Each structure stands twice: as structure tokens, then as C-alpha cells.
Amino acid sequence: MKRAVLIVNPFASRVTEERITAVERALMRVAYVRTVRTERPRHAVTLARDAGEADALIVFAGDGGFNEALNGVERDDLPLGFVPGGGTSVLPRALGL
Q1: 58: which strand partners?
Q2: Dihedral angle sign, alpha carbons of residues 56, 60, 64, 65
Q3: pTM, whole model, 2 decimals?
Q4: How confident is the model at residue 94, as a pLDDT?
Q5: Domains along the chain?
Q6: What 8-state DSSP symbol labels residue 87?
Q7: 14-46 burial by CB neighbour count: b if 16+ within 10 A, else e?
């Protein structure tokens, strides 16, 4: 089974414990999931960099948290996923999601 890292920004406006659990359960249908939480600004950069062994990286955060995680990715072949958790969620709207 594939291994995924889920980076969660618990400070994002629409991220709750219930939603984190729901996202984890959905992902666990297709992969082993290791959930890590940001603790401070720019922490997602480090967490994404440390996810190098994963088969996929999923970010549950706002636009800023996703941007941070992107800045930490060091592999060209790492599939990325984004679960919008911010109040504005400009990125999903811009992508037509």
C-alpha cells in the first residue's frame, strides 16, 4: 500500500478535529497516512521537506499553508493533494474546483 503524508494546519479557519479525522479516514482507504501538524509559521516547509519518503503529500490548510508546503517539496515526482481548509480558499476557486 502507498504511503502518504498529510500536513495539517490546525490554525486554518476551516480545519477542525472532526474534519481532520474525516480526511484521514478517506485517505486511509488508499494509503497508509502519517499526519503531521504545523506548529508555527513556515513549519509546513520543513514538514514537506521531511516527507521525502512518501508516495504522496496532501495538505489540509489554507492557501498560505499549501504555498509553504510547495516551497518545501524537493522531489519532482511527488504527487501533491490539497484539501482546502482556509477561509478564503482562492487557489481552489482559481483552479475551478
Answers
A1: 6, 81
A2: negative
A3: 0.94
A4: 79
A5: 2-94 (3.40.50.10330)
A6: S
A7: ebeeeebeebbeebeeebebebbbbeeeebbbb
Per-residue pLDDT, 52: 81
DSSP 17-80: HHHHHHHHHHHTTTEEEEEEE--STTHHHHHHHTTTT-SEEEEEE-HHHHHHHHHH---TT--E
Phi, psi values for residue 50, rounded to 5°: -75, -5
pLDDT band at residue 65 under the 50/70/90 scheme: very high
For residue 4, the SS3 value is strand
32 vs 54: CA distance, rounded Å: 10
9 within 8 A of 36, measured Cβ to Cβ? no
